[in-house]
Write a structure and sequence with these properties.
Blueprint (H helix, E strand, L loop, with lengths): L11 H22 L15 H10 L6 E3 L5 H7 L3 H8 L25 E2 L10 H17 L10 E6 L6 H13 L3 E7 L2 E2 L2 E2 L9 H4 L7 E6 L3 H16 L5 E6 L17 H9 L2 H8 L5 H21 L42 E5 L1 H15 L3 E5 L15 H5 L4 E3 L4 H13 L3 E5 L10 H13 L9 E6 L15 H5 L5 E3 L4 H12 L5 E6 L10 E3 L12 E4 L4 E5 L3 H9 L6 E5 L2 E3 L3 H11 L2 E8 L4 H12 L9 E5 L8 H7 L3 H13 L1
Parallel strand pairs: 1-2, 1-3, 3-4, 4-8, 7-8, 10-11, 10-12, 13-15, 14-15, 18-19, 18-21, 21-22
Antiparallel strand pairs: 5-6, 9-16, 14-20, 17-19
Bound molecules: thiamine diphosphate.
Length: 683
């Protein structure tokens, strides 16, 4: 057989060393650390190494971004993660990417002069849309902001064959092909997802073949364990995407030489398949490919290095137990990557906490639009997007004319995928932009749940190395005239239970301005709720409080004072509570929480200590509703001040119906609230 000369562009001795290093780490984990109980989750990359290393070594641009998955250790080593760091990660020690918080192979890494590895997720398929967002961030920064540092950068998303069946894969595929973004889908097809053959993931078992006719996608397919073929295909894919030609999908066939994890005995794999996989092992093939290398010497060196790395990692401290809850939110020390803070952006001073009302009263909707407009003018890194948000100005009208004023790069429509909207928002935030996505209605955030959850824990999972601050605007609640199960959900309790998110739920135009401005200048992900029944109705109208007016989160408003009963509420229910309380002038104190996370415990406790009675009113359903949290807090901290059992008025555990009379029976109304007030006042 004629020996084909190795490609000069590849540093093959380095590839060989990295492959041996990855393999030696897997072996030592399999043979010693896992049986000894020092590593509890062992994911072997044996068989996948060569392709990943070749990719890792080609992502040399300082603004390249990659999303990876649990089998990506060889890539990580090629990208610069050290053996002691990865071993510390697997042993749940400090000195690792997550400081012992996350499973060791759920990687992240800020740039070490080359690629940034975005915080990975344990959710298969969740890696794709953040990578699409990073690709979009590259374009925005390079082309619109004219930041040369970003030109020529690319994004890559690495996944297995199973992951191509997940929603995120298809959401990202649509985004990058419609927008022509620089994303490389790097699919390592080992023909299994745990035990399920790829027959179940895509018809005919070849995602590359099936996508060959996909418009706007360059597709390559090859053997990821063959040194020459893999290196050529990877070089072709990387240069295609880097040149700005558009997205590319590269599928590489690789053998999975071990079980899915250490405990997987692969009983489901026929013996012939296992033998065939062993034949495809990239290590002997690389040895054959590089006959002049002193493999024996190299293996000895690498083994000794890995042994030393184990010793070094074992010496690392365990994380302090008290540190566990830290870094869920920004604590004053900026993250290294993501959001505006790391690049030294200081938001305009918003010390004005007292409104300076000027002009006529504005609708809630106009207040939101005016605030977005002003902040877009002040902050070139802010982007507003969502379904129908561009030309139409949003189905509710909150972004009307903003595209016209700020251009299609800053205010734009997206494909109809909430997972796509949220996931790409995460990726854009990680490039240092401020995404402000709109979700059309609260119920339609359902498909984005995985990205929402992962965004909320991102800072925590990386021990403050990364964060993805953004403001997600969501119209919530019943409409002015009608309701129904799809457009009338408020669902704040679920988000209050979603870690790492702040929640604003303003009841009027002035608060909307103040809270939105604070959110747009903050360093944490925030939900901003816009109640549909208040968008253009009289009660919520207020004069514009000023361009610098910002309202801190966690400060309730005392809507009216009273001495006999505290009513805690928010959103549209504020007005129903006020109307209900008219029968008892001076007796009912109404607190509008304004923000649910954080909520103003001090104000609520102080009021209840004064009145001795409490009623919580919300539109969200009763069981597990946020009233439960408030009441539990009062019971624990002000029990001795109570003169009556605490009460809750909420929607029964039932969706909002379409028929107006049925809806009236579900959404708390003035009569019901007044009845509960009467009962408590008389107690
Ligand atoms: C959303 C989600 N569903 C299920 C799982 C459990 N799970 C973990 S790995 C895996 C198989 C993934 O296979 P593939 O993408 O082909 O990668 P491979 O492990 O073969 O490298 C499954 C089902 C998960 N982590 N996330």
């Amino acid at each position: 057989m004629t020996q084909i000369p190795p490609s000069p562009a590849v540093d093959w001795p380095r590839v060989a060393r990295l492959l041996l290093t990855s393999r030696a780490i897997d072996t030592i984990e399999e043979q010693e650390l896992t049986p000894q109980g020092k590593v509890t989750y062992q994911f072997s990359a044996k068989g996948h190494e060569l392709a990943q290393i070749l990719l890792g070594l080609s992502l040399t641009h300082p603004r390249d971004g990659a999303t990876v998955y649990y089998r990506s250790r060889p890539f990580m080593l090629a990208a610069g993660l050290t053996p002691p760091e990865t071993l510390a990660a697997d042993m749940a020690k400090t000195g690792s990417p997550s400081e012992g918080r996350d499973v060791g192979v759920v990687f992240s890494m800020t740039s070490r002069g080359a690629v940034t590895v975005l915080p990975a997720s344990g959710d298969v398929g969740a890696q794709y849309t953040p990578a699409a967002g990073w690709a979009q961030g590259i374009f925005y920064r390079a082309r619109t902001l004219k930041d040369e540092n970003w030109s020529g950068a690319l994004a890559t998303a690495i996944g297995g064959d199973g992951s191509t069946a997940a929603n995120g894969f298809w959401a990202a595929l649509n985004i990058v092909t419609t927008l022509h973004l620089p994303l490389l889908f790097f699919i390592e097809d080992n023909s299994y997802a745990i035990s399920v053959p790829s027959l179940m993931q895509t018809p005919g078992m070849n995602i590359a073949a099936n996508l060959s006719a996909y418009q706007g996608l360059h597709v390559l397919d090859g053997d990821g364990a063959d040194p020459l073929e893999a290196s050529q295909k990877i070089a072709a894919a990387v240069s295609y995407v880097r040149a700005g030609e558009g997205p590319c999908l590269l599928r590489l066939r690789v053998p999975r030489l071990m079980g899915h994890t250490f405990i997987d005995d692969q009983a489901y794999k026929p013996a012939a398949k296992r033998a065939e996989e062993m034949q495809r092992d990239p290590l002997p093939r690389l040895k054959q490919f590089l006959p002049d290398l002193d493999w024996e010497k190299l293996e000895e060196e690498v083994k000794a290095e890995v042994r030393e790395a184990v010793t070094a990692a074992s010496r690392n401290r365990d994380p302090e137990p008290e540190s566990a809850p830290r870094h869920l939110f920004f604590e004053g020390q900026p993250q290294t990557q993501g959001g505006l803070a790391p690049e030294g952006f200081t938001p305009p001073r918003s010390t004005l906490h007292t409104p300076q009302p000027t002009g006529p009263r504005l609708n809630f909707l106009d207040a939101v639009r005016k605030t977005l407009d002003y902040e877009l003018t002040r902050n070139p890194k802010m982007l507003v997007f969502g379904e129908d948000v561009g030309l139409k100005g949003g189905v509710h009208g909150a972004t009307l004319d903003l595209q016209h004023k700020f251009g299609c790069e800053r205010v734009f429509d997206t494909s109809l995928s909430e997972e796509g909207i949220m996931g790409s928002a995460v990726g854009m935030a990680l490039t240092g932009l401020l995404p402000v996505p709109e979700i059309q209605f609260r119920k339609y955030a359902d498909p984005a749940t995985e990205q929402i959850n992962d965004c909320g824990t991102l800072r925590w999972r990386t021990a403050n190395k990364f964060a993805a601050p953004m403001v997600v605007r969501i119209p919530v609640g019943f409409g002015k005239k009608t309701g129904d199960p799809w457009h009338s959900v408020t669902g704040e309790a679920i988000y209050a239970h979603t870690l790492g998110w702040r929640i604003a739920f303003p009841s009027n135009a002035e608060d909307a301005v103040g809270l939105l401005r604070t959110a747009l200048r903050s360093n944490d992900p925030t939900f901003f709720f816009e109640h549909r029944a208040l968008l253009d109705t009289a009660p919520a109208r207020r004069p514009y409080p000023g361009d610098e007016y910002a309202l801190p989160f966690g400060v309730a408003a005392t809507v009216q004072s009273g001495d006999s009963l505290t009513v805690v509420t928010w959103g549209e229910m504020v007005y129903r509570a006020q109307e209900a309380a008219r029968a008892w002038p001076g007796r009912v104190e109404i607190l509008d929480l304004r923000t649910i996370s954080p909520w103003d415990r001090e104000a609520v406790l102080a009021s209840v200590k004064k009145t001795g009675k409490c009623l919580v009113v919300h539109e969200d359903t009763l069981t597990g509703g946020f009233a439960g949290e408030i009441i539990a807090t009062i019971a624990a901290e002000a029990f001795q001040f109570l003169d009556a059992p605490m009460g809750r008025v909420a929607a029964p555990d039932c969706p909002v119906p379409y028929n107006a009379q049925l809806m009236g029976a579900v959404v708390p109304n003035v009569e019901t609230i007044a009845g509960r007030m009467a009962g408590l006042l008389a107690f």
